[in-house]
Amino acid sequence: MSGKATLLDARELDRALTRIAHEIVERAKGADDLALVGIHTRGVPIAERLADAIARFEPARPKVGHLDITLYRDDLTEIALQPVVKRTDVPFDVAGLRLVVCDDVLYTGRTARAALDALVDLGRPAVIQYAVLVDRGHRELPIRADYVGKNVPTRRDEVVKVRLEETDGVDEVVLDERPADAAGAGGTA
Amino acid sequence: MTGPHERILLRGARWVSAHADEGVHDLVLAGGRIEGATPDGPVDREVDATGLVGTAAFVDPHVHLRDPGFEAKEDLASGLAAAAAGGYGTVVSMANTDPVIDDPDLVRSLRERAAALPGARLRPAAALTMGLEGTRLSDAAGLVEAGAVLLTDDGIPVANAEVMRRAAEWAAALDVPIQTHSEDPDLRADGVMHEGEVSERLGLPGNPAAAEAVMVYRDAEIARTTGARVHIAHVTTRAALEVIAFFKARGAPVTCEVTPHHLTLDHTALADYDPIVKVAPPLRTPDDVAALREAVASGLVDCIGTDHAPHTRSEKRMDLLTAPFGIANLEVSVPLLYERFVASGDWPLARLLELLQDGPARVLGWDAPRLEVGAPADVVLLDLETPRPVDPATQRSKAAFGPWDGEVLRGWPMRTFVAGREVFARTP
Amino acid sequence: MSAPLAHLRDVGDLDEGRVHALFDTTDVMAQVLERPVKRVPALQGFTVATLFFEDSTRTRLSFERAARAQSADVMTFAKGGTSLSKGESLYDTVATLAALHVDAFVVRHPAAGAPHQVARWTDAKVVNAGDGRHAHPTQALLDAYAYRAAGGRPFDATKVVILGDVAHSRVARSNAALWAMLGAEVVLCGPPTLLPPALAALPGVTLEHDVERALEGAHAVMPLRLQRERMDAARIASMAAYARHYQLDAARLALADPGAFVLHPGPMNRDVEIEGAVADGPRSLVTAQVAAGLPVRMAVLYHLLVGKEAA
Q: Cβ-count burial of B73 within 10 angstroms (0-12 exposed, 13-18 middle, 19+ buried)?
């Protein structure tokens, strides 16, 4: 299934992640005390890939955690369907670490807000930063990303679909009209 | 309400009884009695009964009118009005009131109060034992003299067999029937529904079928040995019916009744945990219901007793252990039975009339109600054709709610006359 | 994504998929309870009311903690307080409390079916915290969860024996229904007076009076609390006679599978229905059962409250 417009193909996606990996290390002045935390679902492979990328030019691969923010969403009194709560897997003490939260798309900022609350409940990190593959605008909260793969101006009635090899069998980011069934295959935001 | 001396011409109904279909003709009520097919003087009022079926108003040997003492549930006025709306001309009220009807003056008082009310005739039953306590006998002779037509502790089984035997000896001598609530109190224990797979699944305390059968055996044997006429109220199980058949075959003076709810509902009705269907004895298995229907068809069952047992809405919205037993059904009984069993083709109309007229009269030792010239003008006009929903808003009983609310039935009483006075007219 | 659970009145409100989803959520809730901050905001804005017509402080506190650990507001209505008036109909009580905008009622009542009645009369979700002999679904869920978490065999390869006073036990009924739904072989075992034959009609359940035969090859054994009242009601001769014939002791447990787990819903009569040494032994999950109570109830509240039902 191809979208209306391809924003990133597999090579471009890989290049964007590699660039972010370098920026993270540069900004952190090294990979010590660095940990990546991916937000379920597609933030998880993005964090893993960034860790792999960093491992290619740094002596150590940063620690990676998986974060489920469901219990921290601010719309649980409103939503129609019940999200499945997944395990949070952050197998290290976050206190004093530089955490980079990874996600596929930054849109309203509400997911990032929830992730911050969830991380703070795990301990007291030294720094929390935010890395996303696509920033599509339309923020509803005062939140910005520290690392962005691609800035894409969008309309609200459009959908950004991120598909990753690990979760969807293909690497690509496409821009599509919002389908009648908004819960189609691939990550939509 | 019209005065007793009005001459009323009922025009164009088809007149039926358990024994005959007389076809369409007019009927005149005058001076509280049946005057004949043509008026013997000036007619005060004409009622167009075209398309309706007329018959003698029904007799219910088993109702709880809750008066005196529990007037929030029902009182004489609402209960007798409900009976009239149900097509009943005469009802026998049970004695489990407060005070218990165990004193001749209480019987007289009930009769006097009821006589002044528009509605069905009241024929009170009186207690078999003082205070329904099952130990000291009531003054059966005095109670009968005061007008009690039946002796019963209904609501509470008489646990002591010796007490039942001695009560039966009095009843036999006085030629008054005894009615028994035949359940072994120890076996019944704290059961709130039939004991079986449904009660086990629902986790509700069960009342086993054996509780009824063993007590029916005892009471029927007391009837056989004392010669007292013993009427087994609200039979619910196949086993109890077999016991009754056994004793009837041996000529024991035993009669029995079944209720509209035991004929139409089974224990699965409790699955929603609604105390509205909590009754004593409990709703039984589908096999028991089938046995009751067979026994009605075969003639083993003598009559229908509604066991109209009203309670307040609030009481019926308590939990299953606390809520009281009983269903209020006087106003729905006839259409319910007509729709389910006569309209369906299972019973001829004559069988239903037998169960509501000749049967209860026989149980009580009365002449069967007949629309003969000179007989009391107790008449009901039924609409056997028009389907109408059971509508609590139109009911006269204070307990205007039940398990059949909203069901669409035929066979509704349209007008009821008692002693020549119109005591009920349904808005068409 | 799925629809929220409508109510948890008994195990019949669940299906196999939902049970496994509840267990997965329970894993996450257990994780939350191990963190420094043992609280998540998931149920912020929801109000949970405990409505206990029967004393059970432990169960009530467990539900209230489960609600608070997800930031729900909690109201308590318990027998003994002034909030539940004696003699008032259940309906009137519920109507009054529902006006306080309750999202979920947690109901404990001596009469079976009270949670069903409450559910009929309010728009709120209803959780059964034990009703008469009928059901105690969160107890069954935590029992099964503890078995799973301890490394018990897959449920569809498990034989569970529920042993003792089955007749009067809501825990037995809920566990029988739950384990059977999950595919386990369920054997109910007890003296004839405490094991109504009509229970054989429950799906997936067999009855057995012989304790030795019942235990053969069992993977989970659940002895039930025996109450002294049963002697007065002509159900058993004596507590000692009961223990001689039906107590789960080490010798009888040896008849079960070597890896069998022992579960007891508590409170225990040590050396009556269960030998003290078995209760404290290596196969006992009693401590794990207690620990599972809170995360299971957190999961249940999440599954009930989050998500609006389709109209």
A: buried
Contact B200 C113 (CB under 8 A): no
Q: Does C60 touch chain A (CB under 8 A)?
A: no
Domain covering B57-364 in this structure, CATH number: 3.20.20.140
In chain B, residues under CATH classification 2.30.40.10 are 8-54+374-425
Q: Which residues of C touch B208 (CB under 8 A)?
A: none
Q: What is the DSSP letter of A59?
A: S
Closest CA to C84 of C58, C113, C116, C107: C107
Instruction: Write the CATH number for A117.
Output: 3.40.50.2020
**Whole-angstrom Cα distance, residue B134 to residue C83?**
40
Structural domain boundaries enclosing A22: 10-154
CB contact under 8 A, C306 and A79: yes
Q: Is B273 within 8 Å of C133 when comparing Cβ atoms?
A: no
Residue linked to tokens 């980011």: A173
Q: Distance (Å, rounded) from C-alpha A68 to C-alpha B255?
A: 74
Could you tell me how many helices (H) and strands (E) chain A has, helices first?
4, 9
Instruction: Write out residues 15-44 of A within 8 Å (CB-CB) of C.
Output: none
Mutate to test the interface with A, among C23, C27, C28, C70 (most CBs of A within 10 A): C28
- Known catalytic residue: B378? no
Buried b (16+ CB within 10 A) or exposed e, B289-316: bebbbebbeeebbbbbbbbbbbbbeebb
Tokens linked to C186? 């369920």
Tens of pLDDT along chain A (189 residues) come to 444 799 999 999 999 999 999 999 999 888 889 999 999 999 999 999 999 999 999 999 999 999 999 999 998 988 889 999 999 999 999 999 999 999 999 999 999 999 999 999 999 999 999 999 999 999 999 999 999 999 999 999 999 999 999 999 999 999 998 765 544 444 556
Alpha-helical runs (H) found in B97-209:
104-115, 140-145, 161-174, 185-188, 197-202
Residue from B197, B217, B218 nearest B208 by CA: B197
Facing residue for C307 by CB, picked from A74, A82, A88: A82
Query: How buried is residue B428: exposed, middle or buried, by Cβ count under 10 Å (0-12/13-18/19+)?
Result: exposed
CA B17 to chain centre: 19
d(CA C211, CA C191): 9
Is the separation of the CB atoms in B90 and B57 below 8 Å? yes
- The span from the CA of B141 to the CA of A82, in Å, is 73
Question: For chain C, how many helices (H) and strands (E)?
Answer: 12, 9
DSSP reduced 3-state for C233: coil
**CA B282/CA B183 separation, integer angstroms:** 11
The answer, for B201 touching chain C at a CB cutoff of 8 Å, is yes
Task: Dump pLDDT digits (tens) for C143-189.
Answer: 999 999 999 999 999 999 999 999 999 999 999 999 999 999 999 99
Could you give the CA distance from residue B424 to residue B120 in angstroms, rounded to a whole number? 9
Residues 6+ apart with CB under 8 A from C233: none
Phi/psi of residue B308, nearest 5 degrees = -50, 115
Does the domain at residues B8-54+374-425 carry the CATH identifier 2.60.40.2470?
no
Pair A162, A187: CB distance under 8 Å: yes
Spell out which residues of chain B touch residue C91, defining contact as CB-CB under 8 Å.
314, 317-318
ipTM above 0.90, yes or no: yes
Asked if C173 reaches chain B (Cβ–Cβ under 8 Å), the answer is yes
Q: Which of B307, B358, B378, B383 is catalytic?
A: B307
- Residue A56 to chain C, least CA–CA distance (Å): 33
Overall domain count for chain A: 1
Distances (CA, A) of C139 to B415, C135, C169: 58, 9, 12
